[in-house]
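@channel anyone free to eyeball this complex?
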Amino acid sequence: MNRITYSKATDVRDAIQEHSKTDKAQYIAGGTNLLDLMKVNVMRPAHLVDINKIGFDFIEQEADGGLRLGASVTNADTAYHQHVQQHYPLLAEAMLSAASAQLRNMATNGGNIMQRTRCYYFYDTSTACNKREPGSGCSAINGYNRMHAILGTSADCIAVHPSDMAVALRALDAVVCVEGPSGKREIPMEAFHRLPEDKPDQDNTLAADEVITSIKLPPSKYAKHYSYLKLRDRPSYAFALVSVAAALNLDEQQHVLEASIALGGVAHKPWRMPEAEALLIGKPATAANFRMAADMLLSTAQGYGHNNFKIELARRAIVRALEQAVNKQATL
Amino acid sequence: MKSGYIGAAVNRVDGYLKVRGEAKYAAEYQAEQLCYGVVVSSSIAKGKIKTLDASKALALDGVLQVFSHENRTSLPWFDRSYKDEDQPPGSPFRPFYSNEIQFNMQPIALVVAESFELARYAATLIDVEYKAVDFNADFLNSQEKAYEAKKGKSGWKPPKSRGNASKALKHADVLVEATYFHPAEHHNPLELHASTVVVEADDTFTVYDKTQGVFNSQQYLMNIFGLSKAEVHVKAPYIGGAFGSGLRPQYQLFMAFMAAKALKRSVRVVLTRQQMFSFGHRPMTTQQLSLAASSKGKLVGIKHEAIAETSQFEEYTENVVNWSGMLYDCPDVDLSYKLLKLDTYTPLDMRAPGGATGVYAFEAAIDELACKAGVDPLQFRLLNYAEQEQNEKLPFSSKELKACYAIAADKFGWARRNPIPGQLREGDNLLGVGMATGVWEAQQQQVMAKAKLSPDGQLVVSCGTADIGTGTYTVMSQIAAETLGLPIEDVSFLLGDSDLPMAPLQGGSWTASSVGPAVLSVCEGLKEKLLKEAAGLPHSGFKGAKVEEVLFKDGMLCLKGDPSVQLSIAALMKQRNLAILEHQTASMPDPKQSQYGKYTHSAVFVEVKVDAELGNVQVSRVVVAVAAGRILNPKTARSQVLGGVVWGISMALEEESVMDKQYGRFINHDLAEYHVAVNADVHDIEVIFVEEEDDVINPLGVKGLGEIGIVGVPAAISNAIYNATGKRLRALPFTLDKLLE
Ligand SMILES: Cc1cc2nc3c(=O)[nH]c(=O)nc-3n(C[C@H](O)[C@H](O)[C@H](O)COP(=O)(O)OP(=O)(O)OC[C@H]3O[C@@H](n4cnc5c(N)ncnc54)[C@H](O)[C@@H]3O)c2cc1C
Ligand code: SF4
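replying in thread with the prediction:
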């Protein structure tokens, strides 16, 4: 039998140690992604290290005014947390657009940003996939690539990262706190997920045996003008074709003081472009200006056939999300 | 005079069992020493298996056997041994027959082990080497290979043309020519296909199968494995949805049975969700329509050609274009139905097969024509209303479609429709309305039923039909209770068992209209018997009374003319010393039915909201009026139609099984990526049943409701999208990319 050993880690050191025992170990949190992948033989760990009870089930305020989200807190508990709702509504909105109520009750914050792509071929072991089996080829490039990336792709992989939460975290400049055999470190969201390049099997920059312990949000800046717009093939319980986390700070004349725009469903990582955001600074918050920023964000976008529509969809979605962010107060 | 059950909103008699989890499904039956089979599927679409090495699996402690073409038990040679009640012409797929691969995900081995987990693991250890050859799974790029269907499966009618459509189209005032497409779709019932084969002490087999017809599965096993009826007993008392997927015996039945017989152990095989995409599906179809009308909106010509996929080994056919010939009054009609063979599995009936799709394209084209002629689409349909069935020129047994139009249009507020598209805006959304006609055949099949009455007044009526969630248990209990004047609590209805009286497959919307009359008839027969017994009692007062003169109520017989003459069933049976009173009958369609066109109709009105920039569509309101003869139970009937409408929304907006042309394999094969409608898709739906009397269709006057709910819905949605946006979408599903321009 495909024997799996299982250990329930008692604290973070114990977890790391258990995980270091074999290179076929996997952390398991809510299990909503890992177990699915195990059932279809895509991930075949030999040792499961349960990290639900290692002391990271808290949400607490930081001295600098930021907020720390424990990795083991469920997506539901995070999204409905009063402080998150009040000060990071963009994050709450993004998280509540994901999956279903049942899944959000199981899924954890660490697991969410670690979830793997939903590329059809990645899930089907009878097809070629470089992410699943390096060197076997990419079936999506010439195959059915409706859900695939239009930005930052490589000749080896055009998969997208499916998380909604990660897109909002990226827009909010969150930092991922991790701990490993050689100690603790902090990885800004920007550097957490990676582009596929020639190593699509690596989704992110987490080192061997490292575990996510928490996610740090800087002091809230965007509680007023924000919007998470998710476009998908079904109004609930479907992954984003394109999503936009938009956040603005406006002066009294409705000129843009600060802007943050992160895209989901378009790349192997949540996509941001500082130059496009800079374009808006000091300018009136108008659709025409938003369109300019959108054009810049998508200037290097490339379709692969079935996903060509995403370029135009993303353009329109960016403009709509920024408009919604401006008007958020009115709709509340 | 009536106990009032027929036509009453009786709750489902099996409802409690289902919500408490006490209703058992095929994969839930236990047996001593049960072992578990897991199916290995082919990863290529066409070719041969060069080698299949099971040694690693077999080396595991607890793996009992790996079945494949290499070690299968001996199997019959001729196609006829593999036939089933829903089989298209051709050569049915034979699991394990040879090393030939005919379609991707073809089952090639069954690993049987002491536990499910072990079998599943061992299945990953089977090494298969293939010799793959070129295949064709590209439907749209091989349309030129389509050929006119000559023969079809039972129920298929070769389309009949009439007049000279080409001429009519040439000289018409208004002409519409358009091509429509719909992708393959899978049934995806919640319950996975499963069979548990129990080896009994006397070496007979009890088979719990997910099937819409226990006799179909039984006969299939008898033919292939050379067994008598007494040796194979098939049961399917509860089914977690099927929608057509259980009309043919699926391969898990064959495999579980072969393993159980060879190992002399009880075996269970359950398919995975991915494997649910490895057999029948609604066939991809292209439909070319040319319609012509006079400037006043009179239909003058119809040309409808469909090309549908089938497999290389069977010719699956459905009535796609026939609806276009029958639905409206039109002199010149040209219909054609072609098949295109692909290296995939044979398609299979799926809710309203042919109708859900043919009527979709036709009713969308009718809307295009009406709009082009400048006639209100509802008015257009009334102008061309068929008072006679048009393909056969037969009178309708009943047709209250006009009432459906009127009532639904009024409830919906159709009169407020703005004929100019793209005018109504609400925030970011464009609003639009559309309508379509729905139609499905009303049929009756031959059915047998049995009734047993015991002295305590308990009635057991039985028939080997099925209840795939439709409410068969409930409505049959209602008919029996009302006919014999018993409280419904004292009536039980048995089904889904091959030891019960014969019934056809549950499909085609014919169960209520076929089993219903059989239940009525067997209960009427029991009444006669009761009266005869009563008349035989000295001084009972029933002597010489005719059955029409006797009231059966509350467990009593009572003379209508003299209510003082009465007798309880219990007393009667006691005095006559009857341990049981039994009756069995067959009911069959009256031959006079063939002189009529027999159909269920509906009118569907839909409102949509389409995001003007982003393209996502929401079906905000549906009003559907249905004329389906007598409604046995408005509650279960409404559920049927609601389910159909929701599926119509799903079909219009979301459903698509994507065929990957590199692999010849459906690639979005799970419920995360094969989208079906969820709660968030469903808004206001109003179902109205229009009164319709029909004394031709069957003695109960009921037509079926299984399919009608879905028919017309995708067309009404497409027409509403046009009204909202001015865009004509002609390929299902209407995903947002298609509305971005
Ligand atoms: C049908 C369906 C629809 C969905 N729709 C959406 C959607 O629309 N949007 C969306 O964003 N998500 C969606 N999800 C995905 C869902 O959000 C993820 O499955 C979930 O967030 C994963 O969290 P988990 O705790 O269950 O992770 P697990 O399944 O336990 O783990 C996932 C991976 O993360 C690793 N891991 C977990 N925790 C840590 C940690 N602390 N440190 C290091 N590694 C860790 C595990 O080893 C594993 O590899 C959907 C899922 C399903 C099944
Ligand atoms: S896109 Fe990436 S994940 Fe998908 S098949 Fe190609 S390599 Fe695999």
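from a first look: The longest strand of chain A covers residues 242-250.
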